[in-house]
Write a structure and sequence with these properties.
The chain is an all-alpha fold. 76% of the residues lie in helices and 1% in strands.
């Protein structure tokens, strides 16, 4: 496929679809790598003699650094070439995976996981941005994004299952070696199937902006995630405040640079702004799902693997919804499809807000599936709207902003809804008077402490304590999922109004067939997709540098 702007919205061929498969595999691997470690943690902790603090860093450092470097790597990919950066990242990811698999100490594993996070940040925005280059046709882009999103979500769900299966036969380091064949395929097939693409007006990477970006994102995400675990403690609030203050300086610097790391002009596009807000707050609404996972384990008494298996159907429902959303958007406005999906999601959350300890798993599973089905259009169509509302040479930065916003949204949702749940739990639990003071204090801190305290106390008294804790936690989960339902309904209204101007993708395709040549047709399709002319900050003719249009 020709990647020059004169090609207009040409349709992708077999080579581009094969390239999609190459991009989808590492995407699945990156999301799988976020969750695969949960079941391996007890094994590696015992072998490496990891402390509780080291265990937290082993699990968290990967996600922290991915979030921290997304903006940097998205901008860098636009400057040096998205394929080039992605292949460098794949090579680094392979080396870091081997180092993680054969780590001989907790410190070595933490460093390896940190390198995996940095390498992963080079891969995610590049794979996402290349989709916009490879599939300029609106219908095909919708399908490609749906496949990409499905792989990302599938990896998150498969992580615990894959980890469990591998740990039954191999040592804990084997979970990291999954990366080697996938990255090898990307390194071999990438240069053959993927086009190169960079911003022709790009300058040099501003290192001061990189430092400010990291000093903004890392403390902010760290503070949010730790608030969810430990509550509103001063040091975590301070971390968030530091991130916000540094963020102000970061934004000011971007406004003064000729080639900023983060092009703030992207936020001038109303479709970009609206889709980003919906996706960020939609991610926040999903923050109550972690309480549902805890409910399955602490109230229903499931093992982590059993809980993971019960969550698989909802993941499958999300994937099916993601794949169906672009088809529906060919006939109906994407904003209205997203709004309908968020309304369905609210129904699922409302069902979960009615669950109690005696509720059967059929009802819980139905609520999870209904909520998951509604979330699909937001992920698939929201991403597509972000892509099509900015100039092609800025899709790398746009994808990085989208993914960083998603990280913020989920972390914010977990922190806020987790705090809501913790407050409700603390107000609802009634500890029997006979329980020793230390055990009672542990039980009041959270359901995990209550489970441990009940085992320590034992007997009838322990059973009474556990019952009280389970009832309090169920009420807490009900409150959090009820709040998620309210937020999802509010977002449905926002999506219908703020994105209602974007026409169905079928109309964009019709505009793409207008007379006047392929370049004009491409402009018409882009304008139709975004809902009004003039929203792009750069003309179509200044879109791309065909660094290697032939592959």
């Amino acid at each position: 496929m020709d990647t020059t702007p004169e090609a207009g919205a040409v349709r992708a061929g077999p080579r581009q679809w094969a390239g999609l498969a190459v991009l989808a595999l590492p995407t699945l691997l990156l999301s799988l790598d976020m969750s695969v470690l949960y079941l391996a943690l007890p094994h590696l902790s015992a072998e490496l003699d990891a402390t509780a603090t080291q265990q937290l860093w082993i699990t968290d450092i990967y996600g922290f650094l991915i979030a921290g470097f997304l903006v940097t790597m998205g901008g860098l990919g636009d400057l040096v070439g998205r394929r080039k950066l992605m292949l460098i990242g794949a090579a680094c990811f392979t080396v870091a995976s081997v180092a993680a698999a054969y780590s001989t100490s907790a410190e070595m594993l933490i460093v390896s996981r940190a390198l995996l996070g940095v390498a992963g940040a080079t891969l995610m925005p590049s794979t996402m941005a290349l989709l916009g280059n490879m599939f300029p046709d609106p219908r095909q882009m919708g399908t490609a994004i749906a496949v990409w999103m499905s792989c990302f979500m599938g990896g998150m769900a498969l992580g615990p299952l894959v980890g469990g299966l591998m740990l039954q036969r191999f040592w804990w380091g084997s979970v990291f070696l999954l990366a080697i064949p996938v990255m090898a395929l990307l390194l071999i097939a990438g240069p053959l199937l993927l086009p190169e693409y960079r911003d022709p007006a790009g300058g040099r990477l501003d290192l001061a902006s990189v430092a400010l970006s990291l000093a903004t994102i890392l403390p902010f995400v760290y503070g949010l995630k730790e608030l969810a675990k430990h509550g509103w403690e001063p040091q975590y609030l301070l971390a968030i405040a530091v991130g916000i203050v540094v963020g102000v300086f970061f934004v000011r610097r971007q406004r003064t640079l000729e080639t900023p790391l983060l092009d703030l002009r992207l936020f001038a596009h109303r479709t970009f702004r609206a889709a980003l807000v919906v996706m960020v707050l939609g991610g926040a609404a999903s923050g109550s799902f972690f309480l549902v996972s805890m409910f399955l384990q602490t109230v229903k008494g499931m093992s982590p693997l059993e809980a993971g298996l019960w969550l698989v159907p909802s993941t499958g429902a999300t994937i099916a919804s993601v794949m169906l959303a672009p088809v529906v958007a060919r006939r109906f406005r994407p904003g209205h499809v997203i709004a309908a999906g968020l309304t369905i999601t609210a129904v699922g959350y409302l069902m979960l807000s009615q669950v109690d300890g005696s509720t059967g798993m059929a009802f819980v599973l139905t609520g999870l599936i209904v909520g998951a089905v509604g979330a699909g259009p937001m992920g698939a169509l929201g991403t597509g709207l972000i892509f099509t509302s900015v100039p092609p040479e800025k899709t790398g930065a746009a994808s990085a902003i989208s993914e960083t916003g998603g990280e913020f949204g989920i972390a914010f949702g977990v922190a806020v809804l987790g705090s809501v749940g913790a407050a409700v739990y603390g107000s609802q639990i009634t500890v029997p008077d006979q329980v020793p003071a230390a055990a009672a204090a542990a039980a009041r801190e959270g359901i995990a402490g209550a489970v441990g305290a009940a085992e320590q106390v034992g007997g009838t008294l322990g059973a009474e304590l556990l019952t009280a804790a389970r009832e309090a936690f169920t009420t807490a989960m009900n409150s959090a999922t009820g709040a998620s339902a309210a937020l999802a309904l509010a977002l449905a209204v926002v999506a219908a109004i703020a994105l209602g101007h974007v026409p169905p993708t079928g109309q964009a395709e019709a505009a793409g067939g207008a007379e006047g040549g392929p370049e004009q047709a491409g402009d018409a399709a882009a304008t139709a997709q975004d809902g009004r002319s003039g929203e792009h900050s750069a003309p179509a003719g200044a879109a791309a540098e065909p660094a290697n249009a032939s592959g």
